[in-house]
Model the fold of this input.
Amino acid sequence: MKISIITCTYNSQDHVEDSIKSFLAQDYADKELVVIDGASKDKTLDILESYKEHIAVIKSEEDTGIYNAMNKGLDLISGEVFGFLHSDDVYASESVLSKVANEFIEGQTQVVYGDLIYTDASLSKTIRKWTSGSFKRSLFNNGWMPPHPTLFLKTDLLQQGGKFNEAFRISGDYEFILRYLCKMKLMVKYIPETLVKMRVGGESNQSLKNRLKANAEDRKAWRINGMNPFPATVFKPLRKILQFVR
Done:
């Protein structure tokens, strides 16, 4: 069972090599890496070129945003399962993809997710820990969601659920997760361990203004899927605060 990993880059020269090496270090053999670059102006493309024999696809052109880039990646994958490894992120161990594959192979699982930690730039200091916990669809009403970088889905689900909604600028991943895990009735499995290390940052967390925009988009995500956004969008920011004290 091939696992396709999509990495989106834009002026990512500082950390993208860490992400590539993390993917290559995985002990699961049947995997491919698809890299979508937004026409980087720094040395990102030079770094990608140096690893081209290990990367299934490198596509570099201007895009309209991160979700446009991610959708381009979804159009190019060939695996039965897909996930995303952002250019600032690394896998927490060399066996992440093997453990994910086992969950899909052993049962009727359609979606797999795990835990995530936010780190400093060196990846050595934990800033926040995102412990997802076991899946219950009702938890979405309490502001719960699994961390998107740890999410793996069967590729054939895209025919039913569709790709990312590019009308979103910040919360497209949240809308995607709501659509698949909350609205659709899928077989979901939780791996109770850290799968991804993610450097601190992210569009929605860069300022109070962006956080307010993200919350507005969160409410929109519920509404366009025919669901009531309250109280989920009230509790969701509070859950982030709790991650600092775990």
DSSP finds eight helices and nine strands in the chain. The first helix runs from residue 16 to 24. The CA atoms of residues 26 and 94 lie 4 Å apart.
